[in-house]
Amino acid sequence: MNSHKVRFVLINTTHPGNIGASARAIKNMNFDELFLVSPRLYPHEEANARASGAEDVLKQARVFSSFQEAVRDCHLLFGTSSRQRALPIPLLTARQGAIRINEALRVGQKVAVLFGQERIGLTNDELSACHYHLMIPCNPLFPSLNLAAAVQIIAYELHLALQDVELPSSISSWVNTKEMEAFYSYLQETLIKLEFLNPRFPGHLMRKLRRLFNRIMIEENEMNILRGILAAIRKKIE
Amino acid sequence: MNSHKVRFVLINTTHPGNIGASARAIKNMNFDELFLVSPRLYPHEEANARASGAEDVLKQARVFSSFQEAVRDCHLLFGTSSRQRALPIPLLTARQGAIRINEALRVGQKVAVLFGQERIGLTNDELSACHYHLMIPCNPLFPSLNLAAAVQIIAYELHLALQDVELPSSISSWVNTKEMEAFYSYLQETLIKLEFLNPRFPGHLMRKLRRLFNRIMIEENEMNILRGILAAIRKKIE
Question: Which terminal residue of chain B, N or C, has fewer Cβ atoms less than 10 Å from its own Cβ?
Fold first, then answer.
């Protein structure tokens, strides 16, 4: 699988641990392009420690002294921020933004997503250089995400948008309706033999048992176990 | 805005920083219920540092010595893991799982999401106690997310799913994990008395029966029927 082509740009990052954690977060979601603008402490052992398997992404990370330089070959810039601004630019949620970015990539645009300094986020100047303002929906009373956590969510939404998600499948052999009916008959007979069920009025209780078993899809091998239990009961009491 | 009611359970966490970062991650997404099972180092200053504004969630976090205790009042358990297992349980992506959890909360079920130890994830035993296996779609060549990053993505998807328009709900009285355990014991004893189960090797078959019953949420009145059937069997054969 080729890596997705979106650039993640971290501006003025204070904690080197967040740089390493961001490298890991984007690699987890199949990205590899990390650009750093004036990081306070970098390279740093804390960045390596938190990268934890994404040292390759960290090693390739390019460092710039201005964000304009870091995005000069890009076409479309997305600035992440939890705060609305006085002079707003078009605002998208992370999920909406991912769809927009997918569209951009498919027409050959180069896209960068910008993340500001931990404490203050993107400055007004940085955000106003962007085409879109990306916002991660969250608790309005506690909206400040950890930097690497924000990178993780954006990378995750992009990964989902940029490829069809295929889950590994596990095919089972399921019991069909006819087999279920045979099971219910056998169950009903057995419950009557157990004197648990009144043979003159089986309906109410059997309906409840059907309602219960209808909430599961039963596999063939499980049905064999259930039938085995009923057979063992009948052998014992007959 | 009231906080969302889902329990986040971290099992055998090695790094206290991940506990603090998880507290922050869930508070960012408007959750506050963090349960810890046998954390290696806790309380710890690194947990406090990474909580960074979520010290209240951390302070309320309850600590247990077994995960069974931490979820005994819960009805529906979701285990997060990036690995498929030999005996699979129903598999959902994070997004699908969030929709399923929304449905469960609306019928009055108490839900917990379990996260395993950093290096190894959930054990087979822990995952097989769950009703669903939650998987975060990611890079198959580098699927191991940082623990707090995984918590962040799950909390984010849940926040989005739970703030949806509220549908009318129908509250039932559900059987909880503790009552299910009592049922399994009674079932196992009964199957041994029936000579259906070899008392020296009950494990394999009981795991299959657990896997089957874990796919249903059982109501109290249904449990009374099941228990009644087992009692009738024992009365008959004793």
Answer: C
